[in-house]
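Priority: medium. Attachment 1 of 2:
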């Protein structure tokens, strides 16, 4: 990004006695975005390939490493790879031993997907990857628009922006106060500096997720949109909110109606249903412990619907 510079302007004032007073005034020039829509498309095409190439590199390294060398590889190179900084559980998780965990990105048909990858380090389990879907997908249009609107110029900066936004949403106090969205519908994610337009989409394996379709930033707000956004967050007293509407309300009255409708569609309760297919030989206590550890790190902003893959064996959990 080209940072704004300072341009000197000389101001000369003439007094009643015809004396000239000269003063140097500095005006801040606006920042000039360097990423236009075409550049954003080109960057996303490049980074999409980089993400998937990185995943192939990680998979290849997995099969040629032991847990220690694999962890060290991820720790040293995560900035350029499709993953974030890894960590390892301090305690063993029964049959699976200690587990290496990190968040990763992958692209399919132009869409970005996120998941939390788990690598059991026990001798019998090493080489397997347990992936927990974060239930969030981003369309190609959303990613291109994000890159353009946030003036993102590097892959590292893109990862930082995605992580920041994910944490802002999932660590919002909206859940603590009101619960999770309990219906599959269009909605917007309201933050003070941006609004994301989303839909709930069921994938081929009948597992649902949140599809982020587009977004606008504060610079794009028009009319009363900024006022409405601030009203929604102030009224709910939250840093981020999910509102069941397909567009930003046009007035405070519409905003209040949307808030009322949303609060009818959230729940603080749920149930756990579990189906196990060809599960590995381990005790029920091991399974329960692993599930609790994995799901504690999943997205909790929406009603949890998590698919956990264990190679070709799957655990499907709905809450």
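Attachment 2 of 2:
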């Amino acid at each position: 990004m080209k940072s704004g510079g300072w341009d000197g302007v000389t101001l000369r004032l003439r007094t009643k006695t015809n004396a000239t007073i000269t003063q140097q005034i500095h005006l801040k020039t606006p920042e000039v975005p360097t990423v236009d829509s075409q550049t954003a498309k080109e960057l996303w095409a490049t980074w999409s390939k980089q993400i998937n190439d990185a995943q192939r590199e990680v998979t290849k390294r997995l099969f040629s490493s032991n847990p220690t060398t694999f962890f060290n590889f991820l720790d040293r190179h995560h900035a350029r790879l499709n993953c974030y900084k890894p960590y390892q559980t301090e305690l063993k998780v029964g049959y699976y031993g200690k587990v290496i965990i990190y968040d990763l990105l992958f692209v399919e048909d132009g869409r970005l997907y996120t998941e939390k990858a788990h690598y059991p380090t026990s001798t019998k389990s090493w080489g397997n990857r347990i992936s927990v879907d974060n239930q969030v997908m981003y369309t190609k249009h959303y990613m291109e628009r994000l890159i353009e609107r946030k003036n993102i110029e590097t892959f590292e900066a893109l990862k930082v922006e995605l992580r920041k936004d994910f944490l802002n949403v999932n660590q919002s106090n909206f859940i603590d106060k009101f619960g999770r969205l309990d219906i599959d519908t269009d909605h917007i994610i309201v933050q003070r500096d941006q609004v994301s337009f989303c839909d709930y989409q069921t994938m081929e394996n009948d597992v649902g997720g949140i599809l982020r379709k587009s977004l606008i930033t504060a610079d794009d707000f028009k009319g009363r949109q900024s006022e409405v956004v601030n009203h929604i967050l102030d009224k709910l007293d939250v840093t981020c909110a999910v509102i069941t509407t397909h567009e930003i309300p046009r007035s405070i009255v519409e905003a209040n109606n949307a808030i009322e409708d949303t609060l009818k569609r959230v729940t603080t309760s749920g149930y756990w249903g579990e189906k196990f297919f060809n599960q590995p030989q381990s005790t029920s206590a091991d399974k329960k412990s692993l599930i609790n550890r994995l799901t504690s790190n999943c997205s909790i902003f929406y009603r949890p619907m998590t698919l956990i893959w264990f190679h070709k064996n799957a655990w499907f959990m709905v809450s």
